[in-house]
Amino acid sequence: MPIDWFTVAAQALNFGALVWLLKRFLYGPILQAVDAREKRIADELADAAAQQDQARQERESFAKKNADFEQQRKTLFDQAKNQASAQGKQWLAQAREAASAWSAKRQATLSAQAQQIDGVIRTQAQQEIFAITRQALLELADVDLEQRICAVFGRRLQDADEPVRSALTRAFKTDPQSVQVRSAFALSASARSAVEDALRDALEVQGPVQFVTAPELVCGIELVGGGQKIGWNVADYLAAMEQRLAEQMRAQGDAVGEAQVAVAERGAPAASAAA
Fold it and tell me: Which end of the chain is more exposed for a tag (fewer CB within 10 A), N or C?
């Protein structure tokens, strides 16, 4: 059977036209749609990966910030705890010091009050005793005692230091009225004469002598002038005795106070340890 080349050519041309038409109007748009879809999917995948990476970075940043915040919170909490503990210890120490100071002050106040009361009682007793002693000596004074007192006074003038005697001599010469012979009771004429003789012998006094009665001397006599004093009286002995007794009482009071302070100091550590 012979081949119809015209038909083959026409069919080949038709087939070529069909292929071109399919490629132009079917496969082309399909391939473009596929490429566009693949590109869109790739873009979406890339965007999703970028978002995932950003989310991971944000998650890591948030975790880091959370860890930093937790560390800061722990640090601040520890600092606040330490500060509160230190402040509490300081307040406790201050409270203990204040309580100890108040206790010591109260103890000292009570001790001072007790000593004051005891001192008042002792002082009143001493004053009564010395008042009775002075009154008894005044009642016992007589002529013989007067003569003996004047004799003792004369010996005191003779035994006086040279500066004292010189000062009294100058006082007699410059201002005789400023020099006085003071006695516990009024001297008799003979006693005054004896005193004037003693002054004449010891101080070379030529003028009149001023005699003054001073009951507080308690059976005594003294010469006062020129800032000096020479004499003898029972009051000096009583004053010396009173001073010695007062010193002894002060020493006893100080010893009692020191003992109480020592007891309080020994008790303070124990109280602190118990607290």
Answer: N
- Output phi, psi for 157, to 5 deg: -65, -45
How far apart CA 47 and CA 43 sit, in angstroms, is 6
Q: Which of 173, 240, 231 is nearest to 203 (CA)?
A: 173
- The structure tokens 């132009």 sit at 24
Token digits of residue 171: 């006082």
What letter does residue 177 receive in the DSSP assignment? G
Residues ≥6 apart with Cβ < 8 Å to 140: 219
pLDDT tens digit sequence for 118-129: 667 766 765 666
Nearest-angstrom CA–CA distance, 168 and 157: 11
Unique residue bearing structure tokens 């080349």: 5
pTM over 0.70: no
State how far the Cα of 160 lies from the Cα of 167, in Å rounded to an integer: 11
Cβ proximity of 225 and 171 under 8 Å: yes
